[in-house]
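Re-run with default settings, no changes from the original entry. Doing this only to confirm the output is reproducible before filing.
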Amino acid sequence: MVKRAGGALLLSIVIDPNSPRSVSAQLHGALRELILSGSFAVGERLPASRTLARDLSLSRTTVIEAFDRLTAEGLIESRVGAGAFVSAALQTERPRAPPPGSATVPPPASTEPRLSRTMAQAVARFGDRARLPSQARAFTTALPAFEAFPMAQWARLTARHWRSPRHEVMGYGEPGGHAPLRQAIALHLRANRGIGCDAQQIFIVGGAQQAFHLVGLMLLNPGDKVWFENPGAIGARNSLIAAGAELVPVPVDAQGLQVAEGLRLAPRFGLAFVTPSHQQPLGVVMSLQRRFELLQAAAGAGAWIIEDDYDGEFSFGGPPLPTLKSVDATGLVIHVGTFSKSLFPSLRLGYLLAPPALVAPLEAIMSRLMQGVPTHTQAVVADFIGEGHFAAHVRRMRKLYAERHDALCQAAARQLAGALEVERSSSGLHTVGWLCAGHDETAVVAAAAQRQVTVAPIGRYAIAPRAAGAPGGLVLGFGGVTPAEIERGVGLLAEVLGRGRVA
């Protein structure tokens, strides 16, 4: 490198005036890279600030700012009357080349991080399953109708709460949740879901999956057996596995979880997970008889039950059956709800309704180990419920989802008969279609994806092989797409299945 009295000549540094980064930040980054890469030796003098400013046509103030940042990072040190030099501390942080003639030591082989046994098993078991697409198109699951959300009301409530005292919107929230939201949820559950509860039993969490993981960590020891619907909910499955649970795949039929089969497979179990209002993914509603059988089995085993009521608000085929929690006399049902479907997913807001015996333990755990969900988000939801917007929104969505469900069933009857038999549902945002003989669900999913149609195979939700001879199936979401998009999507599926004209 060319030397002169003012220090190294650094004309290789290029400053881009159109960059979004400030000139000082660009200069700092360039000098930092030269130092860390070894272009400057330890103890070597940098150009004087005046000299460097002149060489690069910058102001001296800009250069001094960059030098100050490098000094604060410990990369350079100033010597009064002498200038700025590369810090001696780098001598111990950067490897040096071996002296000539010495034996070279090969670099150590890179190693994978050592995960905990539980997490390593969870990643190995399901690490090959890529996340499903989340675009609002035919037939993405778990997405509500974004275009029908009352954004103006939401924006008004949000703006109002951002004008609240700063300590309320910017400080740490209550670990168990914002009191007005806990009260609003308890009132809603009593009035609309038939669940007798009070606000102290409600705990606000960052989405239903956090609730499942929290319950697993709180109530299960590694290796404890958990009855799990097969096929069943992916998020809950992964959360419980990550908590160390040993999932017992219990088959599902037209009445829901087969309790007798669960008792045969694992009579001693610590927890059961069910989606009784709208089974995920098959869509069946758990019969009242099965609910009582499950409660009896849990009481006999001293086991807890998680009831995932992920879209139970949207019953459009007549009055819904009571929730499992509403008929629970055992005190063993943990009811979990979410606002991801009833409002929108990015809220990351859910709640856990604890049985009386778990209230005190949950209060202790959350107050000592967890920070609360952002208070301003909870406050907006509390007012959205309290002012009646939530109830009005749910009523509108029930009607809208019924229309979209009917549009899917009618289009499928016209275009897919003999290839895919779509089940009629009575609630929720999705249903299933059963493939007729000769169609492989995995191949259909891949071919549909090439046409920008999202369908999920039933097998994706299974934790064990389904019964021999069981037909392949597709999970079809209709909540987030309009009837016109549904009609188009069905037409593309017909092409895939050989029932229409291939584009």
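The first strand starts at residue 76 and ends at 79. The chain has three domains: 23-93, 151-391, 399-496.
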